[in-house]
Amino acid sequence: MTNISKDYEKLNDVSNCFTEETLRNILCSEHKGKNADILSWDFGESTTVGENYLSTVNKIKVTGIVDGKQVETKIVVKSLPKNLGRRRTYRSTDFFRNEIQFYTKVLTILLFYFVKIYTITCSHNIFPLKVVPKFERFLEDKGQSRILCIPRHLASVMDGENDYIALENVCSRGYESMFRQDSISKDQSVMILKATAKFHAISFAYKDQRKEEFKEIIDNLEETYFSKTHWPWYQRFHENLVDITKNALETEYPGSEAKKRYNSYKPGELYFKVSEFCERKYYPTSVINQGDSWLPNFMCNRQNGNDILILDFQLARCVSPVLDVSTCIYGCADKSIWHEHFDELLKLYYNELSNTIILLGSDPENVYSWSTFMNEVKEQFVTGIVFAMEIVPFSLLESDAFDLDAIIKDDNAVNIADIWTLSNIKTQQGRLRLANTIVHAVEKEFI
To answer: pTM for the complete prediction?
Structure first.
């Protein structure tokens, strides 16, 4: 008789390497125990069709006995799609490798170092991860409430065939998803930028204090999206996005300087401009970026002052922080926020960055001054435009717009432009959301 509380087939559907032993180790780690017995695992509702392109996402509740006490842990597991054609079409293994490297080779090392500084110099909880036991014990001893900015990494495998990454499910802590169709307030925009600033500050301070080690750490990250290497994969889709943007400008701002300036760029020219910024891995001002900072990659705890958590590091890269900032501003808010409060948003971001760098023992004036930041804003804020060209049309779609497993029927890769079949934006509100970013960028001389 099948034990319905232990459906091994479902575990195997995640990955051949995702086993009961994996769950046992997670329970021991999460509940600080030595021995664990698994009573059951329950797979919740699967992710809505069309919400995840690069991976399959499962939410699992694990119940067991740890050192004689019954416990429960909720986790989120991202795994490679079983559909090989989908996996190859979207280069899923490249993105999984980058995110797993981020958690296991980059972030853990950064936090391990700053735990030592934190315990001596700081009395405020600014770090998100419960990675190092010593750090966790320190926070508990001080009675500090944890401010989670990144979900905890629990387990992962990276072999190109059975890749998965298991993370804590933070919904039990009050965090809610921020969907691509959501409209957010100015306060939420500020909270997103502040969370991003704290994340960037860790890199700045570590780089300042251990420069050579920082170089070794970032060697583990590879550019997964914007590069000459990936242009053949992205080209047709990008050219379609260019046409959609031209249509929005022609319809809403015919004869405008914004339309004229945008049309002066050849298809691909802006992509290669951003690709050049993404090649600056070892520049003095380059730090680890989230890389894909639009609404679905943030969660909000509305019960705790709109506290923000950052998700998804499949596009993590080492570049100027402006690349994340520009995408946060153009990709997470509409014109009423960034047009009216643009300079204020930049200042709020920089102040948070500066204050956190100081808490970590470095001088922001030396590692990343306000003038340096503003110079890079002038040069590299165009990145937000290239992201907006993709993000805005996607944000206007229904969540189930693309059923990839139904479209990709065999094991062969297809061109992403044949899957993401976007067309001109039908509503004036949608067209203005895209066109207004171009108008603003031209006004600010970003393009």
So the answer is: 0.89
